Amino acid sequence: MSTLYDKPRIRICGDSAIIVEYGAGIDRAVNEKVRAMAALLKRSLPAGVEAVIPAYRSLSLLYNPLATSTDQLAKTVEALEADFRQAEIAKPRIVEIPVCYGGEFGPDLEIVADQNRLTIGEVIAIHTSVNYHIYMIGFAPGFCYLGGLDRRLHTPRRKTPRTNLPAGSVGIAESQTGMYPQDSPGGWQIIGRTPLRLFAPWRAEPFLYQAGDRVRFVAIPEATFRQIREKEWQ
Amino acid sequence: MSDLFLVRTPGLYTTVQDAGRFGYLDRGVPPSGALDSFAYRIANLLVGNPGGFAVLEITMVGPVLDVLAEADIALTGADMGMTLNGSAVANWQALRVRQGDVLRIPKARRGCRAYLAVTGGIDVPPVMGSRSTLVRAKLGGLEGRILKKEDVISRGEGVLLSTPRSLPGHWIPDYRPDITLRAIPGPQDDYFSKEMETFFGSTYEVSVETDRMGYRLKGPPVRPDEGRPESIVTEPIMPGNVQVPADGQPIIVLVEQTTGGYMKIATVVTHDIPGVAQAMSRNRVRFEKVSLDEAHTLYHEQAERMRKIEEHFS
Question: Is the N or C terminus of chain B more exposed, i.e. has fewer CB atoms within 10 Å?
């Protein structure tokens, strides 16, 4: 059952932004439409639009009030509805993220296994079997809101958050799974770590993914972790 | 590029800021940049810099700086009782400093944030299109952090002024302890049909929990209508958005947050955001409801005023 609206709803967000809502909740179909609309808008940015920010169920458009108006933007957004039906939206990119599970990299892997009555091998097999959908990126640079964690892996947060998780930590919190792009405090159950630099400000492309892409975790042994890590972080 | 200041004491929270980092809003990278965009732009104009150059943003307590080389400087925004070699010098004007001078920027007496521009701009490497510091992500500025004792601050290439510049008095803002912020209802005004009057009819106090991410206010709580949830699906947030968390105490969002799940009852107009940047803890804030058209008229007036100021200095 999809919660897609018949036509987009526009919310006024101050004097230089609007929010275009495509549906009511967290819903794959709604988010796919958001992704499609963001792609269409970015393909030829309407005059006066300064940024297009996709979220779970909406797009925020930042505009210059000296160059366009909300009426004009509303018309543009409505016109896109027709394009959407015709447009061929590119298939989502699948971004592989190598992860070394357990040990010093995933101190909570056993907790996740015990709480869900699984073996460590089963946890890894389940976690690496899904193409996770990036609903949106926010909260911190490169932090993904991922959808698709298997119910068998849902695990409560740690009672006491850790004060410093290393960049690349991969964790589980309730029905979510995700990655910490930078060193950060956090209460997630940490099951592994990626040697990739998820946020590299100096790289020509600082991030490895965008909203709408899929993330696929791939289990790697420690030796591979160290090899990749050395290259990525030198 | 040349060394300009040696930091003797850094002040409370002094960072390098420019107009902001706008290319990665969809990747969780907030805009950052000078909170008071007006004072920031004037500071650059006063020393003859083009727009977008980096300055020091100084919060409440300022630094003591040993001058290492000749340059023009200008301090705008909060009045911090600045002295040069022990003599009082005014804000909103360019000053020539020379090697051996000592610049002291003690403490905010009116307003909260001051902006120090220098000939050629503060020289730090741009990161993702901006020199602005985002301390939380250790990004930009001077090693992604606030200034510390014994830092050396460099300036970029630039030409010294041939005639001194100062901002005519009628353009200098007056910072008062009671401010009125004009705000447009929404984006989630439909959640607050009952309490909209509480919000626009009450006086709030600025709490001590204020930073570049947001200003928390204290006052009559604002609750969503009966049957409405206390949060929404996470979505992008913008500077000026007034979030209402479950405790009903509004938060004015500033430049270091990209997403949030609280409802936004209203959004402060761009024109009035510098006024938020200059508000201190315990100052009082009222919100005045304006329409989108009125807000756009203010936006145009602001652009026109800036054009006149630029013309004045050209």
Answer: C
Nearest residue, CB atoms, B296 vs list A60, A65, A182: A65
The mean pLDDT value of chain A amounts to 94
Clarify whether residues A45 and A101 are in a common domain.
no
CATH code, A195: 2.40.100.10
Report residue B181: phi and psi, to 5°. -110, 125
If one counts every other C-beta atom within 10 angstroms of the C-beta of residue B145, the result is 15
Residues of chain B positioned with their CB less than 8 A from the CB of A178: none
**CA–CA separation, B72 vs B159, rounded Å?**
9
Domain boundaries B178-305, corresponding CATH code: 2.40.100.10
Quote the ipTM score.
0.94
Q: Which residue in this structure is represented by tokens 């200041």? A: B5
The mean pLDDT value for B80-99 works out to 98
Nearest to A57 by CA among A81, A80, A33, A79: A33
In tens, the pLDDT along A77-122 reads 999 988 877 766 778 899 999 999 999 999 999 999 999 999 999 9
Domain that holds residue A53: 4-86
Taking the Cβ of residue A138 and every Cβ of chain B, the question of whether any pair is shorter than 8 Å is answered with yes
**In this complex, which of A15, A51, A201 lies closest to B22 when CB atoms are compared?**
A51
**CA pair distance B259, B237, nearest whole angstrom:** 5
